[in-house]
User: Which sequence fits this backbone?
C-alpha cells in the first residue's frame, strides 16, 4: 500500500529562552573609560607646556593612561566599543608624560644660572627686571617681591631711580612702592616695572605710588 512521503520539516528558528530573534544584534555598551581617558590625556598634554602648572601633567598622564588601557582591555574582550578613542587617549597621555619629562630634563640640565629671583641682578640670569621710580623731592622705595624686598632712600633729584633684579625661570610677584620722605613736600611720584625691557606695570600719585606685576 503506497504511503505519502513525509512532509519537510520547517527550518529551525532560534526562538525561545537563550536564543536571539532573527534580525536583532546585541549592541556593545558605550565605553566611558576611554572617553574620560581621552579627555584626561588631552589635558595632560596641554598643561605640560604651562609654566609652574606643568607639574600637574604627571598625575593627569598616569590617570589617562590607566583609564585608556582598562578601556582597551574591555574592547578586546568585546564588552565595549570606541577603540579609536581609546588608542588616541593612550597616545595623548604618553605624549603628556614625555613632554613633562622633556621639560624637566631641559630645566635641570640645560638652563644656566641659579634658581630664584636675585636682587640686585646677576649677569648669568636670562631674564632682567628693572624697577624705576621718579620722585623729584626724594622718596622711600621698597622693591622686590612680596616675600623678599629691599628698602632704599632716593635723593631729591629729577633723575629716575633704578633698581634691578634677575631670574632664570619661575613665577614671581614683583612689587615696587615709593612714598615721600617728608609729607609736607608736594611731590609727584611715578613708578614702573620692566621685564626684559618691556614695561609690565606703571602707576603714579601725589604722595605714594605702587606698582605690581607677575612674571608668569
Assistant:
Amino acid at each position: 500500500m503506497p504511503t505519502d512521503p513525509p512532509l519537510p520539516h520547517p527550518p529551525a528558528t532560534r526562538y525561545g529562552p537563550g536564543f536571539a530573534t532573527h534580525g536583532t544584534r546585541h549592541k556593545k555598551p558605550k565605553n566611558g573609560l576611554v572617553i574620560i581617558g581621552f579627555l584626561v590625556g588631552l589635558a595632560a598634554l596641554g598643561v605640560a607646556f604651562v609654566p609652574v602648572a606643568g607639574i600637574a601633567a604627571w598625575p593627569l598622564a598616569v590617570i589617562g593612561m590607566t583609564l585608556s588601557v582598562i578601556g582597551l582591555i574591555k574592547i578586546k574582550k568585546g564588552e565595549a566599543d570606541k577603540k579609536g578613542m581609546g588608542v588616541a587617549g593612550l597616545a595623548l597621555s604618553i605624549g603628556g608624560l614625555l613632554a613633562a619629562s622633556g621639560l624637566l630634563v631641559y630645566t635641570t640640565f640645560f638652563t644656566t644660572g641659579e634658581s630664584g629671583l636675585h636682587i640686585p641682578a646677576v649677569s648669568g640670569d636670562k631674564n632682567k627686571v628693572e624697577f624705576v621710580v621718579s620722585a623729584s623731592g626724594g622718596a622711600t622705595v621698597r622693591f622686590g617681591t612680596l616675600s623678599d624686598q629691599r628698602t632704599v632712600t632716593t635723593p631729591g633729584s629729577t633723575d629716575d631711580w633704578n633698581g634691578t633684579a634677575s631670574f632664570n625661570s619661575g613665577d614671581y610677584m614683583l612689587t615696587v612702592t615709593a612714598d615721600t620722605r617728608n609729607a609736607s613736600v608736594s611731590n609727584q611720584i611715578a613708578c614702573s616695572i620692566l621685564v626684559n625691557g618691556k614695561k609690565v606695570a606703571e602707576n603714579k600719585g601725589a604722595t605714594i605710588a605702587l606698582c605690581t606685576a607677575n612674571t608668569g
User: Anything to note?
Assistant: Residues 18-23 have pLDDT under 50 and may be disordered. The chain has three helices and eight strands. The helical segments are 32-47, 57-76, 83-109. Residues 38 and 88 are 7 Å apart (CA to CA).
